[in-house]
Amino acid sequence: MQETLHSKIQHTPPEVWLSIFKQATFVPHAFDTDASDPFHVLGTPITFDPSTQVILQSALATKWSLVLVCKSWNDLATPLLYQAVAVRSDRGLQSLRDTLTKRTQRISPTGSFTSALRVQRLDLFRWSPSPNTTTDILIDVFQHLPDLEIFCASTRFHDSREIQSCVQAFIANCAASMRKCVLSPLSEVSQSEYEHLISRCPQLSHLFIPWPHWENSSTFPTFPDSLTFLSIDRPLQTQSRPFPSLQHVYVQLLPEFSDIDKMETVFIIQGPYLRTVEFHMSSADAWTDLSLYFDFCTRYCPNLVHLILIMDDWEYDSDEVPSLSIPATVTHLGLYMGWEMVPLDLEAHLSAVRDLLKFQDTVPGVIRRLHALTEHDRKELWENLELRTRFAPLAARCRLEDADGNELFSLDKISA
What we know:
The chain is an alpha/beta fold and about 425 residues long. About 40% of the residues lie in helices and about 15% in strands. The protein has helices at about 1-10, 15-25, 50-65, 70-80, 90-105, 135-140, 160-175, 190-200, 260-270, 285-300, 345-355, 375-385, 385-390, 390-395, 410-415; strands at about 85, 120-125, 150-155, 180-185, 205-210, 230, 250-255, 275-280, 305-310, 330-340, 340-345, 365-370, 400.
Protein backbone atom coordinates (compact mmCIF):
# COMPACT_ATOMS: atom_id res chain seq x y z
CA MET A 1 0.00 0.00 0.00
CA GLN A 2 2.84 2.40 0.89
CA GLU A 3 4.64 1.70 -2.39
CA THR A 4 1.44 2.33 -4.33
CA LEU A 5 0.87 5.64 -2.56
CA HIS A 6 4.51 6.64 -3.10
CA SER A 7 4.20 5.76 -6.75
CA LYS A 8 1.10 7.94 -7.10
CA ILE A 9 2.92 10.87 -5.50
CA GLN A 10 5.88 10.44 -7.82
CA HIS A 11 3.67 10.39 -10.90
CA THR A 12 1.48 13.33 -9.98
CA PRO A 13 2.15 16.09 -12.56
CA PRO A 14 4.20 19.02 -11.18
CA GLU A 15 1.53 21.53 -12.19
CA VAL A 16 -0.96 19.73 -9.92
CA TRP A 17 1.40 19.92 -6.95
CA LEU A 18 2.09 23.58 -7.71
CA SER A 19 -1.63 24.33 -7.69
CA ILE A 20 -1.99 22.57 -4.33
CA PHE A 21 0.98 24.47 -2.90
CA LYS A 22 -0.49 27.80 -4.00
CA GLN A 23 -3.82 27.02 -2.37
CA ALA A 24 -2.14 25.88 0.86
CA THR A 25 -0.07 29.08 1.16
CA PHE A 26 -2.56 31.61 -0.20
CA VAL A 27 -2.75 34.89 1.75
CA PRO A 28 -5.77 37.09 0.95
CA HIS A 29 -4.90 40.60 -0.26
CA ALA A 30 -1.15 40.08 0.06
CA PHE A 31 -0.60 41.06 -3.55
CA ASP A 32 -3.41 43.59 -3.95
CA THR A 33 -2.01 46.81 -5.37
CA ASP A 34 -5.10 48.95 -5.90
CA ALA A 35 -6.82 51.11 -3.31
CA SER A 36 -7.49 49.27 -0.06
CA ASP A 37 -11.22 49.91 0.25
CA PRO A 38 -12.82 47.24 2.48
CA PHE A 39 -16.24 48.03 1.02
CA HIS A 40 -15.19 47.24 -2.55
CA VAL A 41 -13.50 43.95 -1.66
CA LEU A 42 -14.64 42.21 1.54
CA GLY A 43 -11.91 41.69 4.09
CA THR A 44 -9.48 44.15 2.53
CA PRO A 45 -7.36 45.55 5.39
CA ILE A 46 -6.69 49.26 5.69
CA THR A 47 -3.19 50.36 4.73
CA PHE A 48 -1.32 49.95 8.01
CA ASP A 49 -3.33 47.05 9.43
CA PRO A 50 -0.73 44.35 10.28
CA SER A 51 -3.07 41.39 9.71
CA THR A 52 -1.76 40.61 6.21
CA GLN A 53 1.83 40.60 7.46
CA VAL A 54 0.86 38.30 10.33
CA ILE A 55 -0.79 35.82 7.94
CA LEU A 56 2.18 36.02 5.58
CA GLN A 57 4.44 34.94 8.42
CA SER A 58 2.17 31.98 9.17
CA ALA A 59 2.16 30.95 5.51
CA LEU A 60 5.95 31.08 5.54
CA ALA A 61 6.10 28.13 7.93
CA THR A 62 4.03 26.05 5.50
CA LYS A 63 6.26 27.04 2.60
CA TRP A 64 9.40 26.05 4.51
CA SER A 65 7.84 22.65 5.24
CA LEU A 66 7.13 22.14 1.53
CA VAL A 67 10.66 22.94 0.35
CA LEU A 68 12.14 20.46 2.84
CA VAL A 69 10.14 17.40 1.73
CA CYS A 70 12.19 16.38 -1.30
CA LYS A 71 14.14 17.84 -4.20
CA SER A 72 11.21 17.99 -6.61
CA TRP A 73 9.04 19.77 -4.06
CA ASN A 74 11.93 22.08 -3.24
CA ASP A 75 12.19 23.09 -6.89
CA LEU A 76 8.44 23.71 -7.09
CA ALA A 77 7.95 25.49 -3.75
CA THR A 78 11.06 27.68 -3.59
CA PRO A 79 9.66 30.32 -5.99
CA LEU A 80 6.54 30.49 -3.78
CA LEU A 81 8.73 30.89 -0.71
CA TYR A 82 10.28 34.05 -2.11
CA GLN A 83 7.19 35.64 -3.69
CA ALA A 84 6.67 37.64 -0.50
CA VAL A 85 9.66 38.27 1.74
CA ALA A 86 9.63 39.80 5.23
CA VAL A 87 12.79 41.07 6.92
CA ARG A 88 12.96 42.03 10.58
CA SER A 89 16.68 42.10 11.44
CA ASP A 90 20.19 42.65 10.10
CA ARG A 91 20.70 38.90 10.03
CA GLY A 92 17.52 38.35 8.02
CA LEU A 93 18.55 40.97 5.47
CA GLN A 94 21.98 39.37 5.12
CA SER A 95 20.39 35.95 4.60
CA LEU A 96 18.09 37.34 1.90
CA ARG A 97 21.01 38.96 0.08
CA ASP A 98 23.04 35.76 0.20
CA THR A 99 20.13 33.68 -1.16
CA LEU A 100 19.33 36.07 -4.00
CA THR A 101 22.99 36.29 -4.99
CA LYS A 102 23.43 32.52 -4.87
CA ARG A 103 20.35 31.82 -6.95
CA THR A 104 21.48 34.31 -9.57
CA GLN A 105 25.05 33.11 -9.88
CA ARG A 106 24.70 29.35 -9.50
CA ILE A 107 25.32 27.52 -12.79
CA SER A 108 22.91 24.75 -13.80
CA PRO A 109 24.07 21.31 -15.09
CA THR A 110 23.57 22.52 -18.66
CA GLY A 111 26.00 25.35 -18.13
CA SER A 112 23.47 28.18 -18.17
CA PHE A 113 22.70 30.58 -15.32
CA THR A 114 19.67 29.78 -13.21
CA SER A 115 16.91 32.35 -13.22
CA ALA A 116 16.75 34.69 -10.25
CA LEU A 117 13.99 34.33 -7.68
CA ARG A 118 11.00 36.57 -8.50
CA VAL A 119 10.25 38.60 -5.38
CA GLN A 120 6.96 40.48 -5.78
CA ARG A 121 6.55 41.80 -2.24
CA LEU A 122 9.16 42.97 0.29
CA ASP A 123 8.31 43.99 3.86
CA LEU A 124 10.94 45.59 6.08
CA PHE A 125 9.62 45.35 9.63
CA ARG A 126 10.38 47.85 12.35
CA TRP A 127 13.98 47.62 13.51
CA SER A 128 17.01 49.91 13.56
CA PRO A 129 19.63 48.52 11.15
CA SER A 130 23.29 48.59 12.07
CA PRO A 131 25.04 51.60 10.54
CA ASN A 132 27.12 51.26 7.37
CA THR A 133 27.02 47.53 6.60
CA THR A 134 23.22 47.15 6.47
CA THR A 135 22.86 49.90 3.86
CA ASP A 136 25.26 48.12 1.50
CA ILE A 137 23.39 44.85 1.98
CA LEU A 138 20.02 46.47 1.27
CA ILE A 139 21.40 48.06 -1.90
CA ASP A 140 22.56 44.60 -3.02
CA VAL A 141 19.08 43.21 -2.30
CA PHE A 142 17.41 45.89 -4.45
CA GLN A 143 19.71 44.96 -7.32
CA HIS A 144 18.10 41.50 -7.37
CA LEU A 145 14.47 42.69 -7.30
CA PRO A 146 13.55 43.77 -10.85
CA ASP A 147 9.99 42.41 -10.44
CA LEU A 148 9.17 44.00 -7.07
CA GLU A 149 5.57 45.30 -7.06
CA ILE A 150 4.88 45.93 -3.36
CA PHE A 151 7.29 47.54 -0.90
CA CYS A 152 6.31 48.17 2.75
CA ALA A 153 8.99 49.63 5.01
CA SER A 154 8.96 50.57 8.69
CA THR A 155 12.72 50.42 9.08
CA ARG A 156 14.59 53.36 10.61
CA PHE A 157 17.93 54.28 9.11
CA HIS A 158 20.42 56.43 10.96
CA ASP A 159 21.90 58.72 8.35
CA SER A 160 20.42 60.72 5.47
CA ARG A 161 23.26 59.57 3.20
CA GLU A 162 22.31 55.96 3.86
CA ILE A 163 18.72 56.72 2.90
CA GLN A 164 19.75 58.53 -0.27
CA SER A 165 21.89 55.59 -1.40
CA CYS A 166 19.05 53.13 -0.73
CA VAL A 167 16.50 55.28 -2.57
CA GLN A 168 18.81 55.55 -5.57
CA ALA A 169 19.29 51.78 -5.67
CA PHE A 170 15.54 51.22 -5.22
CA ILE A 171 14.70 53.57 -8.11
CA ALA A 172 17.34 52.11 -10.41
CA ASN A 173 16.19 48.53 -9.91
CA CYS A 174 12.57 48.45 -8.71
CA ALA A 175 10.74 51.60 -9.80
CA ALA A 176 9.65 50.30 -13.21
CA SER A 177 7.61 47.45 -11.67
CA MET A 178 6.52 49.18 -8.44
CA ARG A 179 2.74 49.41 -7.92
CA LYS A 180 2.32 49.82 -4.16
CA CYS A 181 4.66 51.68 -1.84
CA VAL A 182 4.00 52.08 1.88
CA LEU A 183 6.57 53.92 3.98
CA SER A 184 6.16 54.80 7.64
CA PRO A 185 7.48 57.97 9.31
CA LEU A 186 10.35 55.84 10.60
CA SER A 187 11.63 55.62 7.02
CA GLU A 188 12.65 59.30 7.18
CA VAL A 189 12.84 59.86 3.44
CA SER A 190 12.97 63.47 2.30
CA GLN A 191 10.50 65.23 0.03
CA SER A 192 12.95 65.46 -2.89
CA GLU A 193 13.67 61.73 -2.64
CA TYR A 194 9.93 60.97 -2.65
CA GLU A 195 9.36 63.16 -5.67
CA HIS A 196 12.22 61.45 -7.51
CA LEU A 197 10.75 58.07 -6.62
CA ILE A 198 7.23 59.02 -7.70
CA SER A 199 8.38 60.33 -11.07
CA ARG A 200 10.12 57.03 -11.85
CA CYS A 201 7.21 54.67 -10.97
CA PRO A 202 4.92 54.66 -14.02
CA GLN A 203 2.68 51.86 -12.66
CA LEU A 204 2.30 53.19 -9.12
CA SER A 205 -1.30 52.93 -7.90
CA HIS A 206 -1.02 52.98 -4.08
CA LEU A 207 1.24 55.47 -2.28
CA PHE A 208 1.31 55.93 1.50
CA ILE A 209 3.51 58.87 2.47
CA PRO A 210 4.59 59.66 6.04
CA TRP A 211 3.59 63.21 6.91
CA PRO A 212 6.68 64.73 8.62
CA HIS A 213 8.75 65.06 5.46
CA TRP A 214 6.31 67.23 3.53
CA GLU A 215 5.72 70.08 5.94
CA ASN A 216 7.75 72.58 3.90
CA SER A 217 6.37 71.54 0.53
CA SER A 218 6.28 74.41 -1.96
CA THR A 219 5.95 72.41 -5.18
CA PHE A 220 3.48 69.82 -6.34
CA PRO A 221 4.88 66.36 -7.17
CA THR A 222 4.02 64.74 -10.49
CA PHE A 223 1.93 61.62 -9.90
CA PRO A 224 1.41 58.84 -12.44
CA ASP A 225 -2.01 58.52 -14.09
CA SER A 226 -2.34 55.05 -12.52
CA LEU A 227 -2.53 56.46 -8.96
CA THR A 228 -5.74 55.40 -7.15
CA PHE A 229 -4.77 55.78 -3.45
CA LEU A 230 -2.77 58.49 -1.72
CA SER A 231 -2.14 59.59 1.86
CA ILE A 232 -2.33 63.36 2.14
CA ASP A 233 -1.87 66.18 4.64
CA ARG A 234 0.39 68.80 3.10
CA PRO A 235 1.78 67.08 -0.02
CA LEU A 236 -1.14 68.34 -2.10
CA GLN A 237 -1.38 71.86 -0.75
CA THR A 238 -0.06 73.29 -4.04
CA GLN A 239 -2.27 71.09 -6.19
CA SER A 240 -3.51 72.96 -9.27
CA ARG A 241 -5.34 70.22 -11.20
CA PRO A 242 -7.34 67.11 -10.31
CA PHE A 243 -6.30 63.51 -10.88
CA PRO A 244 -9.35 61.57 -12.13
CA SER A 245 -7.86 58.18 -11.20
CA LEU A 246 -7.31 59.28 -7.58
CA GLN A 247 -10.56 58.34 -5.84
CA HIS A 248 -9.34 57.19 -2.40
CA VAL A 249 -7.36 59.32 0.05
CA TYR A 250 -6.10 58.91 3.60
CA VAL A 251 -5.81 61.96 5.87
CA GLN A 252 -4.05 61.85 9.24
CA LEU A 253 -5.34 64.50 11.62
CA LEU A 254 -2.45 66.12 13.46
CA PRO A 255 -3.68 69.33 15.10
CA GLU A 256 -0.16 70.49 15.93
CA PHE A 257 0.64 70.52 12.20
CA SER A 258 -2.79 71.46 10.94
CA ASP A 259 -3.19 73.75 7.93
CA ILE A 260 -6.91 73.52 7.28
CA ASP A 261 -7.11 76.42 4.83
CA LYS A 262 -4.65 74.86 2.42
CA MET A 263 -6.20 71.44 2.85
CA GLU A 264 -9.56 72.89 1.85
CA THR A 265 -8.00 73.63 -1.55
CA VAL A 266 -7.20 69.93 -1.89
CA PHE A 267 -10.86 69.02 -1.46
CA ILE A 268 -12.05 71.80 -3.76
CA ILE A 269 -9.85 70.48 -6.59
CA GLN A 270 -9.89 66.71 -6.00
CA GLY A 271 -13.21 66.39 -4.16
CA PRO A 272 -15.47 65.68 -7.19
CA TYR A 273 -13.46 62.51 -7.92
CA LEU A 274 -13.26 61.14 -4.37
CA ARG A 275 -15.38 58.11 -3.50
CA THR A 276 -13.53 56.90 -0.37
CA VAL A 277 -11.91 59.01 2.36
CA GLU A 278 -10.10 57.73 5.46
CA PHE A 279 -9.58 60.00 8.48
CA HIS A 280 -7.07 58.90 11.10
CA MET A 281 -7.36 60.47 14.55
CA SER A 282 -4.20 59.90 16.56
CA SER A 283 -5.49 61.87 19.55
CA ALA A 284 -8.66 63.36 20.99
CA ASP A 285 -7.38 66.84 20.09
CA ALA A 286 -8.37 66.19 16.46
CA TRP A 287 -12.15 66.34 16.95
CA THR A 288 -12.38 69.96 15.77
CA ASP A 289 -10.38 69.23 12.62
CA LEU A 290 -12.50 66.17 11.90
CA SER A 291 -15.65 68.29 12.03
CA LEU A 292 -14.13 70.73 9.52
CA TYR A 293 -13.09 67.90 7.19
CA PHE A 294 -16.61 66.48 7.31
CA ASP A 295 -17.80 69.91 6.19
CA PHE A 296 -15.31 69.86 3.30
CA CYS A 297 -16.61 66.44 2.26
CA THR A 298 -20.20 67.67 2.34
CA ARG A 299 -19.43 70.74 0.25
CA TYR A 300 -16.85 69.44 -2.23
CA CYS A 301 -17.26 65.65 -2.53
CA PRO A 302 -20.61 64.93 -4.22
CA ASN A 303 -19.57 61.37 -5.12
CA LEU A 304 -18.26 60.35 -1.69
CA VAL A 305 -19.91 57.07 -0.64
CA HIS A 306 -17.40 55.37 1.67
CA LEU A 307 -16.06 56.98 4.85
CA ILE A 308 -13.52 55.30 7.15
CA LEU A 309 -12.67 56.58 10.64
CA ILE A 310 -9.48 55.31 12.28
CA MET A 311 -9.26 56.17 15.97
CA ASP A 312 -6.30 55.12 18.06
CA ASP A 313 -8.30 55.61 21.24
CA TRP A 314 -11.81 56.43 22.36
CA GLU A 315 -11.41 58.89 25.20
CA TYR A 316 -14.79 60.61 25.35
CA ASP A 317 -17.71 59.83 27.62
CA SER A 318 -21.02 59.61 25.84
CA ASP A 319 -22.06 63.12 26.88
CA GLU A 320 -18.77 64.62 25.67
CA VAL A 321 -18.79 63.39 22.08
CA PRO A 322 -19.00 66.49 19.85
CA SER A 323 -21.65 66.94 17.21
CA LEU A 324 -20.44 65.61 13.89
CA SER A 325 -22.32 65.82 10.61
CA ILE A 326 -21.54 62.80 8.43
CA PRO A 327 -21.98 63.75 4.74
CA ALA A 328 -25.38 62.68 3.44
CA THR A 329 -23.86 60.98 0.39
CA VAL A 330 -22.02 58.42 2.58
CA THR A 331 -23.65 55.00 2.32
CA HIS A 332 -20.96 53.00 4.14
CA LEU A 333 -19.09 53.96 7.32
CA GLY A 334 -16.13 51.89 8.53
CA LEU A 335 -14.65 52.13 12.02
CA TYR A 336 -11.17 50.95 12.99
CA MET A 337 -10.88 51.75 16.68
CA GLY A 338 -8.04 51.02 19.06
CA TRP A 339 -4.40 50.20 18.45
CA GLU A 340 -3.42 47.89 15.59
CA MET A 341 -3.55 44.60 17.47
CA VAL A 342 -5.63 45.77 20.47
CA PRO A 343 -9.02 46.86 19.11
CA LEU A 344 -11.95 47.99 21.20
CA ASP A 345 -14.17 45.09 22.18
CA LEU A 346 -17.57 44.74 20.51
CA GLU A 347 -19.54 46.48 23.27
CA ALA A 348 -17.19 49.48 23.24
CA HIS A 349 -17.38 49.57 19.44
CA LEU A 350 -21.18 49.61 19.44
CA SER A 351 -21.21 52.30 22.12
CA ALA A 352 -18.87 54.43 20.01
CA VAL A 353 -21.11 54.00 16.96
CA ARG A 354 -24.16 55.01 18.97
CA ASP A 355 -22.39 58.10 20.28
CA LEU A 356 -21.18 59.13 16.83
CA LEU A 357 -24.67 58.88 15.39
CA LYS A 358 -26.67 60.50 18.18
CA PHE A 359 -26.74 63.89 16.41
CA GLN A 360 -27.41 62.44 12.94
CA ASP A 361 -30.85 62.78 11.38
CA THR A 362 -29.87 60.41 8.57
CA VAL A 363 -27.21 57.73 8.97
CA PRO A 364 -25.19 55.59 6.53
CA GLY A 365 -27.02 52.44 5.52
CA VAL A 366 -24.05 50.24 6.50
CA ILE A 367 -21.68 50.64 9.45
CA ARG A 368 -18.84 48.13 9.57
CA ARG A 369 -16.38 47.22 12.30
CA LEU A 370 -13.06 46.89 10.44
CA HIS A 371 -11.32 44.88 13.16
CA ALA A 372 -12.07 41.17 13.07
CA LEU A 373 -14.30 39.87 15.85
CA THR A 374 -12.59 37.99 18.65
CA GLU A 375 -13.98 34.80 20.16
CA HIS A 376 -15.09 36.84 23.16
CA ASP A 377 -16.92 39.24 20.83
CA ARG A 378 -18.73 36.37 19.13
CA LYS A 379 -19.76 34.87 22.44
CA GLU A 380 -21.10 38.22 23.65
CA LEU A 381 -22.96 38.71 20.39
CA TRP A 382 -24.91 35.46 20.63
CA GLU A 383 -25.22 34.94 24.38
CA ASN A 384 -25.55 38.43 25.85
CA LEU A 385 -29.25 39.22 25.44
CA GLU A 386 -28.89 42.46 27.43
CA LEU A 387 -26.24 43.76 24.99
CA ARG A 388 -28.34 42.90 21.94
CA THR A 389 -31.42 44.52 23.44
CA ARG A 390 -29.53 47.64 24.47
CA PHE A 391 -28.30 48.24 20.92
CA ALA A 392 -31.53 47.25 19.19
CA PRO A 393 -32.42 50.92 18.45
CA LEU A 394 -29.04 51.32 16.74
CA ALA A 395 -29.57 48.17 14.66
CA ALA A 396 -32.93 49.55 13.59
CA ARG A 397 -31.26 52.63 12.08
CA CYS A 398 -28.62 50.87 9.94
CA ARG A 399 -27.04 47.54 9.08
CA LEU A 400 -24.23 46.74 11.53
CA GLU A 401 -21.54 44.51 10.03
CA ASP A 402 -18.37 42.68 11.00
CA ALA A 403 -15.15 42.99 9.00
CA ASP A 404 -16.34 40.39 6.49
CA GLY A 405 -19.63 42.15 5.78
CA ASN A 406 -21.79 39.80 7.85
CA GLU A 407 -24.67 41.38 9.78
CA LEU A 408 -23.82 41.49 13.48
CA PHE A 409 -27.39 40.99 14.63
CA SER A 410 -30.87 41.65 13.40
CA LEU A 411 -34.10 42.62 15.09
CA ASP A 412 -35.62 39.16 14.74
CA LYS A 413 -32.61 37.62 16.52
CA ILE A 414 -32.83 40.18 19.30
CA SER A 415 -36.53 39.52 19.85
CA ALA A 416 -36.13 35.74 19.61
